[in-house]
Structures are given as structure tokens and as C-alpha cells.
Design goal:
Blueprint (H helix, E strand, L loop, with lengths): L4 E4 L4 H17 L3 E6 L22 H16 L5 E6 L3 H8 L5 E5 L4 H18 L4 E4 L12 E5 L3 H18 L2 E8 L17 H20 L6 E7 L2 H8 L5 E8 L10 H9 L4 E7 L1
Parallel strand pairs: 1-2, 1-4, 2-3, 4-5, 6-7, 6-9, 7-8, 9-10
Antiparallel strand pairs: 5-10
Helix pairs in contact: 1-2, 3-4, 5-6, 7-8
Protein name: Universal stress protein
Family: Belongs to the universal stress protein A family.
Pfam families: Usp
């Protein structure tokens, strides 16, 4: 990765977990780390009073947040190139803008306090829905990826909608020395009456189609990562249920998100909403441009 890994921090436990994850990710890829704190209140902090004297004698809270985050990152990975910045802007807008010059955006799953948790949860959702680069929400506060081995899970979409996510997942598996499990869900068709001349079990065609989609989706990306062991999981039932179950034993769950030019709404489907809110491991949302 040539572009930096960008992580948003606010001093909360969840953002510190995101910071630790981002430090490890940047080190794995040989990338720099950029630590960002964005807040509209920053526009008013540190301004001068009418008498021309500084409003605050002590370091600003944002300075403490960024200073502590930088110190934590350097202690965790001393050789890492680390920069910090306070941005006086709406957090979601600031992070989306940062993502235009980043290899990866990283956030925690919640923020500070009850109200802050709701706010930053909505920020994370907005960033995941609009980011131009891959974005990771670090679920939980104690999940640490294995140093070697482990498992990356790919929620496999159709070939046209999931190729970028597949490449991202394979690359992540490779740098971690992990295996990749590609999960594709399928549903049994409703068949109130089956013709006696039809052969095969009900749903066989749908299951075979799911396997074929996985093969086609991974065919090209696998050529660039021949050392990654790839397994397929073809699961009957809702995709969100299959992925949430797979996340219980995963180091990272990767899903694609279709982006349509000119569409202003939140571009996330029901499956992505479910895993972002409930997965048991960090979730990477990889945009697919159309």
C-alpha cells in the first residue's frame, strides 16, 4: 500500500481498539498511519477571547486525544510512520474526504458516552456507505487477529459486484498468512408440487449455481495470490445469517458494497447493515463502482 491507513479516534475504548487494529494493518502492508480526530466543536476550540487572550491554558481535549493516540501507536509499532490531524468538520464528511487519499479507513464501532455512541455509530454507517476506499469497522474491543494463520471470510456477491472485494480479501489473507473462506448463501425455491419426472433434490440447481458463482468470482483474483488456501462454504438460508455465523471464528469479514454514480443515499444493503451492527469480528466494506 502506498497511500496511508487512516483511522478516526475520539479517545473512547472502541476508537482505541480501532487504532490498535489500524497500527497492525499499516505495519502489515508497509503503509504510513494517519490518525484523525474530526469534530465541529474543533472550529471553536482554542479561539481567542475578546481580550485577545487564549481561551484555554491547558492543552485542548483534542490535543490530548491525538497526543495519546500517537504515543500509543508508536509504542505498539515504533518503526511506523505516524501523522495526526484535528479537523474542525462533521466527522462523517471529514472521514469520507480523508478516504479519497487513503488505502483504508478504520473506525471503531461506537464512540464516547451514550449520546456519542449513537452519533458515532451513525457516522460509521455513513462512512461505510459513502467511502471511496475500503473501510473497516472494528467490532468489539478485545478481538486481536492471529499473528499467523487465522481466517479471512469473504461474503461473496455476484461476479460483477464482488470482484474488488474478492481481491481485497485475498490480499488480506496473504499478508496475514491466513486462509480465505468464501461464503455464498442460497435459498431453496418454493415448490408446492414437484413433477415426478424431475430428477435431483429440490434446490439442487440453486446450490450448484452458488458454487459456480464462487468459482467464477475467485478465478481471476486467485491467480495473483496462489499461496492463499481458499475454501468454499455454500450455505442454505439468508446471507446475513451465514456471514454472522462465519464471523464468530474469523479475523476479518469482507463484504462488497455497490456504488452507483450520482446516487446520494446510503449505498448499503440489508446484509451489510446486519454485519456492520452484529458481526463478531472486524468488518471491511469494499466499494464496487458501477
Amino acid at each position: 500500500m502506498e497511500l496511508p491507513v487512516v483511522v478516526g479516534v475520539d479517545g473512547s475504548e472502541h476508537s482505541l481498539a480501532a487504532l490498535d487494529w489500524a497500527v497492525d494493518e499499516a505495519a502489515r502492508h508497509g503503509a504510513a498511519l494517519r490518525i484523525v480526530h474530526a469534530s465541529l466543536w474543533g472550529a471553536y476550540e482554542g479561539s481567542e477571547s475578546a481580550a485577545g487572550t487564549a481561551r484555554f491554558a491547558e492543552p485542548l481535549p483534542v490535543e490530548k486525544i491525538l497526543g495519546a493516540a500517537e504515543e500509543r501507536a508508536r509504542k505498539r509499532e515504533p518503526r511506523l510512520v505516524v501523522t495526526t490531524e484535528a479537523i474542525p468538520d462533521d466527522p462523517a464528511a471529514a472521514l469520507v474526504r480523508e478516504g479519497r487519499n487513503a488505502s483504508l479507513l478504520v473506525t471503531g464501532s461506537r464512540g464516547r458516552g451514550a449520546i456519542g455512541g449513537l452519533l458515532l455509530g451513525s457516522v460509521g454507517l455513513a462512512v461505510a456507505a459513502r467511502s471511496d476506499c475500503p473501510m473497516v469497522v472494528v467490532r468489539g474491543t478485545g478481538h486481536a487477529p492471529a499473528a499467523s494463520g487465522g481466517r479471512v471470510v469473504l461474503g461473496a456477491g455476484d461476479e460483477a459486484d464482488g470482484a474488488t472485494a474478492a481481491r481485497f480479501a485475498l490480499r488480506e489473507a496473504e499478508v496475514r498468512g491466513a486462509g480465505l473462506t468464501a461464503v455464498r448463501a442460497w435459498r431453496r425455491p418454493h415448490e408446492p408440487m414437484r413433477h415426478p419426472l424431475l430428477t435431483g433434490s429440490p434446490g439442487q440447481a440453486e446450490e450448484e449455481q452458488a458454487e459456480w458463482i464462487l468459482e467464477e468470482l475467485l478465478r481471476e483474483p486467485r491467480r495473483d495470490h496462489p499461496g492463499v488456501e481458499v475454501t468454499h462454504e455454500i450455505v442454505e438460508g439468508p446471507a446475513r445469517k451465514a456471514l454472522l455465523e462465519a464471523s464468530r471464528t474469523a479475523d476479518l469479514l469482507v463484504v462488497g458494497a455497490r456504488r452507483r454514480e450520482g446516487h446520494l443515499g446510503l449505498q448499503l444493503g440489508i446484509v451489510n447493515h446486519a454485519v456492520l451492527h452484529h458481526a463478531a469480528c472486524p468488518v471491511a466494506v469494499v466499494p464496487e463502482r458501477h
